[in-house]
């Protein structure tokens, strides 16, 4: 059986949400996230969240985990099939969420919540916030006239992006300048699978 090492308010929410959307049987090993003194310091086999063990197959990158689960358990759900013209856009957003939109948010979190030295590095914080806003502008434009990133259909790319948007909201980067994202985020958080994923 697939086992998810899970801590609330971490990227592991993405994986739990996907498993709920797909109704995949799994075991949940719940932990509390410990503010890291150094990278890879969490109490999981990889030292980070999320981590899955699927009958001896261990994976710890959230984007890779999502692709793996879709391939093994998705049955064609929540992703355009290989060869579909929408597949490229799906992969673009799946990875944009973590590779482009999240990194500047991670800088802000690192200095404000973990290092607690944000007041000592105001230029770094200001630059990271500006980069995060620019990344959100791309998403805001892409969502114009759409319910989800691919249009009317919800996909796993929205799960990946949903966590990034949640972090942007928490940090105050998501504000009234991004009405399309705000409406999109509201749609995401109202999904029953998302509500189940954050229930405890």
Topology of this structure?
Layout: E1 2-6, H1 12-22, E2 26-30, E3 51-54, E4 57-59, H2 62-73, H3 87-114, H4 122-142, H5 156-170, H6 179-189, H7 192-197
Brief synopsis:
The chain is an alpha+beta fold and 200 residues long. It is 52% helix and 8% strand.
Structure explained in plain terms:
This protein has 200 residues and is an alpha+beta fold. It folds into two domains: 2-78, Glutaredoxin (3-Layer(aba) Sandwich); 87-196, Glutathione S-transferase Yfyf (Class Pi), Chain A, domain 2, CATH 1.20.1050. It is 52% helix and 8% strand. It has seven helices and four strands, in the order βαβββαααααα. The chain has helices spanning 12-22, 62-73, 87-114, 122-142, 156-170, 179-189, 192-197; strands at residues 2-6, 26-30, 51-54, 57-59. The chain has a four-stranded mixed beta sheet, covered by helices on one side. The longest helix has 28 residues, at 87-114. The chain is globular and about 50 Å long. The two termini are 21 Å apart.
Name its key features.
alpha+beta; Glutathione S-transferase Yfyf (Class Pi), Chain A, domain 2; 4-stranded mixed β-sheet; Glutaredoxin; 200 residues; globular; 8% strand; 2 domains
**Uncertain stretches of 5 or more adjacent residues:** none
The CATH architecture term of the largest domain is Up-down Bundle
Name of the level-1 CATH class of the largest domain: Mainly Alpha
Structural class: alpha+beta
Q: Give the beta-strand count.
A: 4
What name does the CATH topology of the largest domain carry? Answer: Glutathione S-transferase Yfyf (Class Pi), Chain A, domain 2
Shape: globular
Q: Residue share in helices?
A: 40-55%
Determine Rg (CA atoms, Å): 17 Å
Ends apart, CA distance between termini: 21 Å
Overall pLDDT score: 95
Q: Helical element count? A: 7
Order of adjacent strands in the largest pleated sheet:
2-1-3-4
Strand-residue proportion: 5-15%
List the helices and strands in order: EHEEEHHHHHH
Largest sheet: 4 strands, mixed
The count of domains is: 2
């Amino acid at each position: 059986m697939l086992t998810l090492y899970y801590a609330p308010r971490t990227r592991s929410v993405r994986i739990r949400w996907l498993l709920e959307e797909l109704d995949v049987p799994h075991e949940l090993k719940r932990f509390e996230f410990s503010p890291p003194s150094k990278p890879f310091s969490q109490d999981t086999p990889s030292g980070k969240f999320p981590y899955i063990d699927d009958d001896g197959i261990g994976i710890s990158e959230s984007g890779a985990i999502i692709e793996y689960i879709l391939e093994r358990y998705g049955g064609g759900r929540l992703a355009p099939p290989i060869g579909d013209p929408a597949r490229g856009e799906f992969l673009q957003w799946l990875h944009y969420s973590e590779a482009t939109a999240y990194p500047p948010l991670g800088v802000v979190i690192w200095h404000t919540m973990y290092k607690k030295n944000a007041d000592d590095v105001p230029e770094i914080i200001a630059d990271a916030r500006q980069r995060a806003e620019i990344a959100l502008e791309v998403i805001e434009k892409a969502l114009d006239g759409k319910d989800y990133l691919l249009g009317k259909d919800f996909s796993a790319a929205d799960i990946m992006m949903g966590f990034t948007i949640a972090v942007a909201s928490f940090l105050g980067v998501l504000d009234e300048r991004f009405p399309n994202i705000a409406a999109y985020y509201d749609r995401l958080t109202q999904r029953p699978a998302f509500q189940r994923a954050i229930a405890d």
